[in-house]
Structures are given as C-alpha cells and as structure tokens.
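Listing S7. Sequence submitted for prediction.
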Amino acid sequence: MKRYFQPVAKDGSAKKPTLSPPSRKDGDGDGENEETLGDATKKEPLKFMTWNANSFLLRVKNDWPEFTSFVTRFDPDIIAIQEVRMPAAGSKGAPKNPGELKDDTSSSREEKQIMMRALSSPPFRNYRVWWSLSDSKYAGTALVVKKCFQPKTVFFNLDKKASKHETDGRVILAEFETFRFLNTYAPNNGWKEEENSFPRRRKWDKRMLEFVTQSADKPLIWCGDLNVSHEEIDVSHPEFFSAAKLNGYVPPNKEDCGQPGFTLAERKRFANILKEGKLIDAYRFLHKEKDMESGFSWSGHPIGKYRGKRMRIDYFLVSEKLKDRILECKMHGQGIELQGFYGSDHCPVTLILSELSSTNSKESEVST
C-alpha cells in the first residue's frame, strides 16, 4: 500500500548485506515471458507466504538476516512478493524485458548482484524465482517457488498470453497440477477521480471479476497486496479511515470517500469478486473476531497521525472447494511498533493447506 505520509528511503541508503558468494544463477529468470516446465512434481505445494516488501532490494540490504530466519522457520513452498521496486532489463529508450532485472548500468549491475547473491544463499538457493517488473523502481512482483514444486506454466498477465506482462508488473499466475496460484499487487485507489486513481482501480476490479469468474475450471489460490479492507473488522479504526481526506478534498460520490482501500465503493466491488468467484477469505474463515494485536497486515508509521492505524489488505483467497483444507492462515506482524514486519510497512501472511486426499482429488477431477 502506498504511504501518503512518509517518503520511502532511497535504495542506496544502506550498507550492502554480508552474504555468502553465489554458487549459481538460480533465481535469475531466463528472460522468457512464459515457460512450460514439464511434468508436475510428485506432490503439490501446501505452505504459502505472501509479503509486500516495500522494496525487496531495501529488505535485502537492511533486513535480510531476520527475514531469512523467518523463511527458514516457516519453510514455505511458494513465496509471493509484491513491491519489488527493481526496474526491468533494458537500456534507456529501448524496449524493456519485465522478466529480468536491469543490469546495463554500473548501479543496476551492483543492485542485481546484491539481489542475486541473496537469492543464491540458504534457504533461497532451493527456490527458483520469476520476476514481473516495472520500467522503473516502482511496483513489480516476484514468485519464489521451491525447485521440487515447479509449476507447469507461468504467465505474467490475467489473459494467459505468452508474451505479455501486466502494466507495472502486477501479476504472476502459475499453473500447478491441482490448482492455479495468483500473485497480484493491486493498484492503490488513490484519492481523486483522475486517471491513476479511481478509474484505474475500477478497471482493475472489473478485470479481476472477469478473471475469477472465468477460471472456475480449477481451484484458485489468490494472494498478495489486494489494497482493500473488506469490512470494518479489517481496520483498527473504522471512523478514522472512513473520514480520511487528502488536503481536504471530498470526492463527489460519497462511496469514493475515505482512505484508499477502505472506501465503500472498493469494499462493495471486492465483496462481489468474492461472491461471484466463489472465493473464501482464508484468514477470516478461521478468525471470526477482531484482533487488535496481530489481526492487520499493514501498519501506519509509528510517528505521526497514522501511528497505531492498521489495515488488513494482504490476503489469501481460495476457491470454496479448498476451504476444508485450510489449516492455518496467519499474519506475522504485531503491535504498533511493526514487530515482524522486517522493515516493510506490511507483514508476511502465511497459509497452510492439508494434503490433497483421494476424495478431494476425485472431486477436483470431476470439476475439471
């Protein structure tokens, strides 16, 4: 989620991390926009993590040991990252390759090397990485998958077109044997009726609705920073967020008023996406009550008017046919001092599913 109250530190503002030398170039995509990777693995992924890193490079530079320890403890099969904030490959004025990190300048080569060294060190050397990047240090997503659970196909758009990346690298869609896995970084709603605010978010929500309703042939696991808090229980201070304004501006439509991510218009569209897509909010499925300590995934800066103001805008949404397999869905940050956020303004969210039973497998085969 974009901060409107604190500038983000520059990527070059911290010392390089101390990491072991790279043993291989795994984690660096080969530049293809879509790949077919052969047979499915023997068993399916069951442990998932999503995290808006608020600049993946900054997290590598400043918070990597702590985050690495967390990943080692949880041992996810799939990691979905949003806000990578590293530019796509390609020189100035030339076409970009959103599937590879930029390395045509001395500074970009250094940054890529720092990232690749981090991803070649334990435990990440056991994973493969796919990128979908913006032309600049903005937005972008990454999908990090254990090598023993490689997807059959990976796309970088909602249309499943081989040569296309979504604008700003906001989508990675992986096809596994028994389910689809979707990692998205939804555009912020903004505050005004202008091109990069309300209309952009309305268009995004319309496309997401079309995607989930047209993808019912296989179970879906959809995660990421969805930039919306569904209900009042999903924010710490509903009155504060409902009344939020930018420079006193009040949108003409009352349903567009309030904090981006908590306007009535966004929440209604999100509810419709869940309903029409037959999707279950995994966290709320298990946690019915409001948790003021660790029930939110985004937190305002500890200094200023957003201190203690928190929202749940990072999700795992799963198809209804998967709901009986949900064992755990947890947010790993707590308190207003951002414990467990690993330097970001978002904390990691994890999901654990039970193994696919023979009964589930037969039901899935019938549905497809």
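Caption to Listing S7: primary sequence and predicted structure tokens for the chain studied. The longest helix spans residues 198-214. The chain has eight helices and 17 strands.
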